[in-house]
Amino acid sequence: MAGGESSEPLLDVRDLTTRFFTEEGQVNAVESVDLTVHDGEVFGVVGESGSGKSVTALSLIDLVESPGEIVAGEVWYRDADLASEMAASHPDAVDGDAVDLRRVPPEVRRSLRGSSVSMIFQDPMSSFNPSITVGEQIAEAVEVQRRASTNPRSTRSRTQGFGLGSMLASTVIPTRDYVGEESHERAIELLGQVGIPDPEARAGEYPHQYSGGMLQRAMVAQALAGEPDLLIADEPTTALDVTIEAQILNLLADLQDELDMAIVLITHDLGVIARTCDRLGVMYAGEIVEHGSLEDVFDSPVHPYTQGLLGSIPDLDDPAPRLDPIEGNVPSLVAAEMDDRCYFADRCPKAMEECLDKPPAFAVDGAGVAEEADGTGADAAGSATGSDGVPGDATSHTAKCYLADHEFDEARALPEGYFDESDGGSDT
Ligand SMILES: Nc1ncnc2c1ncn2[C@@H]1O[C@H](COP(=O)(O)OP(=O)(O)OP(=O)(O)O)[C@@H](O)[C@H]1O
Ligand code: NI
């Protein structure tokens, strides 16, 4: 193989669909999401509360809990060693150097957590046991990864339900006797690496002795213990004040650079996206409705939802840009209450008759617009349609909106109040 980095994406997610089966009905939390993340890049996911960002993140690492379930999709992760290990037993799950994590046994998926893909959350307290020192907990994370890496993965998957596989999978942390001196030293090194002053002393402190910002750093250190290639960060700075937020974002940027790690950064804050991301996806009602490079999406947003979000940041230099809610409400994701239309149409100033059908993803630029079949029935997509661009090329600028491909036509605009009648006409 030619050395160096592959141009293949590190993560290539297709048609990922996650639902919750609740008493109130089926919640379509994540609907046919496509996204790609390349080596060493920061991919942002932005959207209002309830749009499906966190469930997307959890789906990527298979942490969706009941009554939630991933019902469709592929999660291709590039790992040449894993691909060759899986090639014989799970040929369907292997394509070149990439492995579809949805098609490998759960214990193989779990074994990647921490070592290949790590996650950090908004609330660092949730990642630490309050009664064990921070240093000890990070040393344990190091120890777990250290043992995992000294055993070939094939051994691990054969010893399923026993030893490392289950150790990594469970929330039960190995007892202290397991943790070697080297792991303790590495933990202190990691604390230093994430900018914790006097890491040797701080390692001996308990989580409650840390400030919010310091604990956030410690959580990053814990996530780095296995030297992951991909870090998923769900609102990592939302609970922090603006100064500390900037420090944590700088830390992530430095680490990403230093360790050549890719990051999926989830936030409702477009200011954070603007400062950190290379590319982004804008989520609305469980879908990625616009997707592209930071420049494409910020300079020429196509979806009126994206335009609305961007319109709500008057000044990117504002230290605390805020998402001003767009008029109207985020739709219910309960399947029975969703119409099969563009979910933003009822809030959209440019809704047209076309928007009563669900729009596919249109490529925004490119003369022979590449149109991507929406979810099911995409099997004919192998041969390129259009003259320009590949259908579903996840690196391009796309929008699930007719305006990406059609001019706004006043004559076809839906009359004002069109949607009010259908949902509100019950009283008097
Ligand atoms: N355990 C659950 N049971 C039922 N529905 C759920 C569950 N978890 C999430 N959902 C639903 O899934 C949808 C997406 O939620 P998600 O947490 O991903 O949104 P989000 O974009 O991360 O929002 P926020 O910015 O508030 O974190 C919401 O409608 C939410 O109510
Ligand atoms: Ni969330």
UniProtKB/TrEMBL annotation:
Q: Name one GO cellular component term.
A: plasma membrane
Record's bilayer topology term: Peripheral membrane protein
Q: Name one Pfam family in it.
A: oligo_HPY
- EC? 7.2.2.11
Subcellular location, principal: membrane
The segment annotated Disordered runs over 373-396
What GO molecular function annotation could you give as one example from this UniProt entry? ABC-type nickel transporter activity
Which InterPro entries does this one have? AAA+_ATPase, ABC_Ni/Peptide_Import, ABC_transporter-like_ATP-bd, ABC_transporter-like_CS, Oligopep_ABC_C, P-loop_NTPase
Annotated Low complexity bias: 373-388
Name a single GO biological process. peptide transport
Q: Where does the record say this protein resides?
A: Cell membrane
Is ATP-binding set as a keyword in this record? yes
Substrates-to-products reaction catalysed? Ni(2+)(out) + ATP + H2O = Ni(2+)(in) + ADP + phosphate + H(+)
Task: Determine the domain of life of the protein's source.
Answer: Archaea
This protein's UniProt keywords: ATP-binding, Cell membrane, Ion transport, Membrane, Nucleotide-binding, Translocase, Transport
Provide the top EC class.
translocase
Domain named ABC transporter: which ranges? Answer: 11-310
Looking up NCBIfam families in the UniProt record yields:
oligo_HPY (TIGR01727)
Oligomeric state and partners? The complex is composed of two ATP-binding proteins (NikD and NikE), two transmembrane proteins (NikB and NikC) and a solute-binding protein (NikA).
The protein here is known as Nickel import system ATP-binding protein NikD
